[in-house]
Write a structure and sequence with these properties.
The protein is built from 5 helices and 24 strands. By secondary structure, the protein is α+β, with helices and mostly antiparallel strands. The protein folds into 3 domains: 192 residues, Beta Barrel (Elongation Factor Tu (Ef-tu), domain 3); 62 residues, OB fold (Dihydrolipoamide Acetyltransferase, E2P), CATH 2.40.50.100; 116 residues. The strands form 6 sheets. Strands 3-12-16-14-13-17 form a 6-stranded antiparallel beta barrel. A 5-stranded mixed sheet has the order 1-24-20-19-18. Helix 2 runs antiparallel to helix 3. The longest helix is centred in the first third of the chain and has 57 residues. The chain is elongated.
């Protein structure tokens, strides 16, 4: 019995000593030191590369396209021939219209001569009419004086009438020839226009690119008949490569043109590429997320700060269109401010931002005023000082002034 009592006393003493050690050691916690530095508020989003414009090389007119030798990735220069139409029919049309123009030229020359002849005939008949009219006036005066016979007066009057009719006939003939001349001139102009159209179509059968760039897609490789407007090639100016991100509209309102952007992702490896926001589309759109939730998003366009060739040289990688990236759009930045890890913050019972500061081995619950905040860090405006140690991800059972032990 005595031996049992001794054992019981020893066990109680050991338990009391263990509990005392537990009280002295406190809860094991991980801490971070409050630092003073720069914090950024940013919006992180998936993105992809794109070109602002893709140039389509199309069939200029209906016809047969010859085989296209260019392939995807080939470089072309502005004005370079990229395709050729079968131009046999076009050359035939041009020769026919050219011959028609030459015919009209000869016809117009003949008509011009006829107009000149008719004009001379008018001048002659007018002179004759004027002469007969003067002669009739002279004979009429003599007839009044009974110096000539009535038959001479009648002959003079008849000659004057016939000369008038002849002159009017010549004028009508001249006008008719002029009308034919006008019609032939119009027909000549129309035939010349047709020849110009045929010449233009023949010239357009040699298809050239209006821009320098890279062949993105070849729609046709073999010879075939195609309609006007059908796409042959797609070209892009790769030096104008940019990035587009679909940003939630509630976040997009914080973005401004000119905001700095950090571009990263598996496409570019471990590197971070600098860019800036160049455009925010005025109209949003609805997109269903992977969870089936409808979201309102808007396109934000980002431009690389450096030329593409320089970026590719630094990365030792070739970038293309629709390559997947991630962007961090920096909406605000502050220097020389107190910063703590975001995991150190929590909402207390009054819904105020709080954290635990370790002082003299105890966790001191401290309310703080926050400023900028991102996924990793928070700006603290009031409540703590630089070099303070704050507890990371505090346990829900941790209470104010509880003893803690910092994890090494």
């Amino acid at each position: 019995m005595k031996r049992f009592l001794i054992i019981f006393v020893v066990l109680v003493a050991v338990a009391a000593f263990g509990y005392w050690l537990y009280l002295q050691s406190g809860m094991l916690v991980e801490v971070a030191t409050v630092r003073q530095g720069t914090i950024r508020a940013f919006i992180e989003e998936r993105a992809k590369t794109r070109l602002p414009e893709i140039h389509e090389i199309t069939m200029p007119l209906t016809g047969r396209i010859m085989p296209i030798e260019l392939e995807e990735g080939d470089q072309v220069k502005s004005g370079q021939q990229v395709a050729q139409m079968d131009d046999d029919d076009l050359e035939t049309d041009l020769k026919a219209s050219d011959a028609q123009v030459n015919q009209f030229v000869e016809v117009v020359k003949s008509i011009n001569l006829a107009v000149e002849a008719a004009q001379e005939q008018i001048n002659a008949s007018l002179a004759k009419f004027e002469y007969e009219e003067r002669e009739y006036e002279r004979v009429s005066e003599l007839a009044e004086k009974k110096a000539i016979s009535e038959s001479d007066l009648g002959a003079s009057e008849l000659a004057q009438f016939e000369s008038r009719v002849d002159h009017r006939t010549d004028v009508l003939t001249w006008r008719s020839i002029q009308a034919i001349q006008t019609a032939m001139l119009i027909a000549k102009i129309n035939s010349e226009d047709e020849r110009l159209r045929d010449q233009r179509d023949l010239n357009r059968s040699v298809i050239k690119t209006p821009v320098s760039g890279t062949v993105l897609k070849r729609h046709v490789s073999n010879e075939k008949v195609m309609q006007a407007g059908e796409v042959l090639l797609e070209l892009g100016e790769m030096d104008k490569l940019e990035v587009e991100a679909e940003v939630l509209t509630q976040q997009a309102v914080e973005i401004e043109v000119g905001d700095a952007v950090e571009i990263e992702g598996p496409t570019v490896g471990d590197a971070k590429i600098n860019g800036k926001v160049t455009k925010i589309y005025p109209q949003g759109f609805t997109k269903v997320s992977s969870l089936g939730v409808e979201e309102q998003r808007v396109l934000v366009i980002i431009q690389f700060e450096k030329p593409l060739l320089e970026i590719e040289k630094e990365l030792n990688k070739k970038l293309g269109i629709d390559y997947r990236l991630r962007v961090s759009i920096i909406t605000e930045e502050r220097d020389d401010t107190l910063i703590v890890p975001r995991t150190s913050l929590f909402r207390d019972l009054n819904n105020n931002w709080s954290l635990f500061v370790v002082r003299n081995g105890k966790a001191m619950k401290t309310e703080v005023d926050t400023g900028l905040m991102n996924d990793f860090e928070v700006e603290i405006l009031k409540g703590i000082e630089s070099r303070d140690q704050v507890i990371l991800a505090p346990d829900s059972e941790l209470t104010d002034q509880a003893r803690v032990e910092i994890e090494e």
